[in-house]
Amino acid sequence: MWFLVLGLALSLGGTGAVPPMQSRIVGGWECQRHSQPWQVAVFSYHKPECGGVLIRPQWVLTAAHCRSKNFQLWLGRHDLEEPEATAQYVQVSASFPHPCYNASSPESQLPGQGQDYSHDIMLLRLKEPAQITDAVQVLDLPTEEPVVGSTCIASGWGTTDPEAGPSGPVCVRVCGDSGGPLVCDGMLQGITSWGHTTCATPNKPAVFTKVLPYVDWILDTMAANP
User: Which residues have a catalytic role annotated?
Assistant: First the structure.
């Protein structure tokens, strides 16, 4: 698993029509094993598609454009290609994309030019609660705004090679980072939504769905679907 450290000098608001993008971390450093225990690997039809974040033992938050009819989730993973004793395989019983999300694009399609990705946020309810361990932990929902200048970490299974393009053979094998958490000073603040093909470079920032405005919707949805 990789992480990318960002300085919070960008908008965490909803997204609109977007240019050509990519959805994986490029650059960054390998995470210390299980230093991001809330990180979820979201598979669709047994292929890695997105990231997610465990916010309750039975609930995962991810991006709405990661929707699928056949989810499989892995918790407690560091290396997606090697068996790990800490890993937990969980299935999804229901998905809840935000009701204002534009669902006109094909299922599981990544954001592309001209598409509207406002309200790009979704809840996944697990069939069974995750077991909370040292390698699997929940991350609390935000209670306050991030401060400009905060240190923020976006994590996922991208590539540390900035020359690796979205169609390269390495990128085919790695999990996209859409839907993964943006953690600022230890608090969940964003869900990775999209970025330019040269992501997180000057004048081409990564874009995250800001979580704080959706907290009431998240809590109401979980309460209505126990």
Answer: 65, 120, 178
